[in-house]
Amino acid sequence: MIRIAIALLVGGGILTFFGYNEHKLASAADSEPQTITAQDLIANGYDDNAHVSVKDFEMITWETIVLTPEDNPNKFEKVWAPMIAFDDPYIEELQALPDNAQTAPPYRGQVALILYSTDISSSGQLDSVAYQDTVQGLVINEIDKLGGEELKELKKSLSIDPDKVIILEHNRKPKGTGTTMLMMVGGVLLMLVGPGMIFLGRNK
């Protein structure tokens, strides 16, 4: 009985936490994405709609950080790919490279935009996304920021401020207000049921 009650309490807390985070994101986003250039997003933010379709960007795929499972290093689980705007001076450096260049020069600017993805599962998919005209997703800085091993790896070759970089989660869409409220209410109810079971068990 106590184990079940504790499980309900923990599960309720987790559901409430995720529900609250989803509610924060939904409050800052519309169901339809706004089309915005990478330049505008980096310079001015997303204004009143964190659900965006970003255009006019270059993805620095060779600086991408990838998390893979131990038993299948060719499968991507999580991806962090730096993105820059078309007005970035680095674009001119890339365009000046000879056709037979094997490597690109290091990026010396401050990384201001990162694409985070759990949908990209291979290097081929990463290249496909990089060459798309637009990339859709949700700016998730309200609930998350770079940290841990991915930040450590990115900092090995890039200049990046985790408190300022914009994190765009690939293909993520805001949940409806009804869904987020249901998650939070359900979580609170579970947290109430758990202690209630413990109390009733002790009084039997």
Structure summarized in a few sentences:
The chain is an alpha/beta fold and 204 residues long. It is 40% helix and 21% strand.
Word description of this protein:
- Helix 2 links the parallel strand 1 and strand 2 (51-55).
- This protein has two domains: 1-29 and 174-204; 32-173, no CATH class.
- The chain is built from six helices and ten strands.
- Helices cover 40% and strands 21% of the residues.
- Helix 1 packs antiparallel against helix 6.
- The chain is of the alpha/beta class and 204 residues long.
Overall pLDDT: 85
Largest sheet: 8 strands, mixed
Approximate helicity band:
25-40%
Number of domains: 2
State which percent range the strand residues make up.
15-25%
Shape: globular
Q: Secondary-structure element sequence?
A: HEHEEEEHEEHEHEEH
Terminal-residue CA separation: 12 Å
CA-atom Rg in angstroms: 21 Å
Q: Which structural class fits the helix and strand makeup? A: alpha/beta
Could you name the ranges where pLDDT drops below 50 across 5 or more consecutive residues?
none
Q: Which descriptors would you attach to this protein?
A:
2 domains, 21% strand, 6 helices, alpha/beta, eight-stranded mixed beta sheet
Topology record:
Elements: H1 2-27, E1 34-37, H2 38-44, E2 51-55, E3 57-59, E4 65-67, E5 78-85, H3 89-95, E6 110-111, E7 113-117, H4 123-130, E8 134-139, H5 148-154, E9 159-160, E10 166-170, H6 177-202
Parallel strand pairs: 1-2, 6-9, 7-10
Antiparallel strand pairs: 2-8, 3-5, 4-5, 5-7, 8-10
